[in-house]
From TrEMBL:
SUPFAM superfamilies according to UniProt: GroES-like, NAD(P)-binding Rossmann-fold domains
Alcohol dehydrogenase-like C-terminal domain mapped to chain residues: 196-264
Domain of life: Bacteria
Residues annotated as domain Alcohol dehydrogenase-like N-terminal: 25-150
Essential cofactor(s): Zn(2+)
InterPro entries with a match to the protein in the record: ADH-like_C, ADH-like_N, GroES-like_sf, NAD(P)-bd_dom_sf
GO molecular function, one term: metal ion binding
Lineage: Bacteria, Bacillati, Actinomycetota, Actinomycetes, Micromonosporales
Name this polypeptide is given: Threonine dehydrogenase
Protein keywords: Metal-binding, Zinc
Signal peptide coordinates: none
The organism of origin for this protein: Micromonospora viridifaciens
Length: 383
């Protein structure tokens, strides 16, 4: 089959790779219909994550059609249209039984390396190397889906592919941001980053009753999308003092909840570096979120980070009494609810699929996405 593979720093190529096969009784094979780029892929593309090897297949946010099921798969059958959670979780370990799927003990093939980096293994992710998963990615014609009954969900007929694909990762990540921030009616919420995750975090905050939601970014085209499609307030950091403006919009206190949805994609190398040899990352947006948040408020870290960071304002966290929370998305908890909201038109995401390309043009799609060229929010590939 054809797949989009990493060839070395900043180099991608579509090549022939072996077709996936069932390896375990709970596996199934999915023919991919849509697979989207994601900011978490950019450090991989740049060669900043150890263990990634030339020829590894990228991609983790996808939707497709079931073509083969293992003998222990009960919830799915051939020809079902399913969206697959980007995170791989077994559904049976202690963490999965608590609904904490992102911390699954059995969802990665590289547990030893993950323990070296973080002290404990976490759930895997499609299209990432061993410590972060070790499963072939979704930028391909077919994907093997482990623990299929846990991580794959049937898509309602009335939900389009372009809408449903974002239930794989971006939408549950946005919902996670509001869960961690405990956003409630009357809150003022600020979100750093107007990409797909930032926009869906803002939308989730509004669905939960936030009084004002402000999205901070430096790209006017993205901020226009925030205003038009999400109904949140845009704030371009290039033109204003962000902290002062947020205080003005929140009764002089600062936002109740500040969500960082930027991550390390545009930062210098570091990543797993603290214990694996390298420098630290600079959390620019996170630092601003800490300073902007009201006293006693909550700062949520949604952006992708894998190692150590430098110049983190711990003094501000302590003196202001802030709560800092972070996690990767427990999508298995929320994807059914998000699909229901999509079916009821409460959650619309198709505007985020700004560029549709065939898989053969995968390198072009990633160049557009990486450079934020031509108004690209997400490039979506169709094999």
């Amino acid at each position: 089959m054809r797949a989009l593979c990493w060839e070395g720093a900043d180099a991608l190529a579509v090549r022939q790779v072996p077709d996936p096969e069932l390896r375990n009784a709970q596996d199934m094979i999915v023919r991919v219909r849509r697979s989207a780029t994601c900011g978490a892929d950019l450090p991989l593309l740049a060669g900043r994550i150890p263990y990634l090897a030339a020829g590894d297949v990228l991609g983790h946010e996808f939707l497709g059609e079931v073509v083969e099921v293992g003998p222990e798969v009960r919830r799915h059958r051939v020809a079902d249209r399913v969206v697959v959670c980007a995170g791989v979780a077994c559904g049976a370990c202690w963490f999965c039984r608590q609904g904490l799927f992102a911390w699954c003990d059995n969802g990665t093939t590289g547990a030893a390396a993950a323990e070296t980096a973080w002290g404990q293994p976490t759930a895997g992710c499609f299209g990432h190397p061993g410590p972060l998963g070790g499963f072939a990615g979704s930028h391909a014609e077919y994907v093997r889906v482990p623990y299929a009954d846990v991580g794959a969900f049937t898509v309602p007929d009335e939900v389009s592919d372009d809408r449903a694909v974002f239930a794989s990762d971006a939408a549950p990540t946005g919902w996670l941001g509001t869960e961690l921030g405990e956003v409630t009616r009357g809150d003022v919420v600020a979100v750093w980053g107007a990409g797909a995750v930032g926009q869906l975090t803002a939308g989730a905050a509004l669905l939960r009753g936030a009084d004002r939601v402000i999205v901070v970014d430096g790209h006017d085209d993205r901020l226009r999308m925030v205003e038009r499609h999400v109904g949140a307030e845009p704030l371009n950091y290039r033109y204003v003092d962000v902290t002062a403006e947020l205080r003005e919009r929140s009764g002089g206190r600062g936002p109740d909840v500040c969500v960082e949805a930027v991550g390390m994609a545009a930062e210098p190398p570091g990543l797993l570096a603290g214990r694996l040899g390298g420098g630290a990352d600079r959390p620019l947006a996170l630092r601003e979120a800490v300073h902007a948040c009201r006293k006693g408020g909550t700062v949520v870290v949604l952006g992708t980070w894998t190692g150590f960071v430098d110049t983190f304002p711990l003094g501000a966290v302590m003196n202001k009494g802030l709560t800092v929370r972070s996690a990767r998305q427990h999508g298995q908890r929320w994807i059914p609810m998000l699909l229901d909201r999509m079916a009821r038109d409460e959650l619309r995401t198709e505007h985020l699929a700004t560029h549709h390309l065939p898989l053969e043009r995968g390198p072009d799609g990633y160049a557009l996405f990486r450079d934020r060229a031509d108004g690209c929010i997400r490039a979506v590939f169709s094999p």
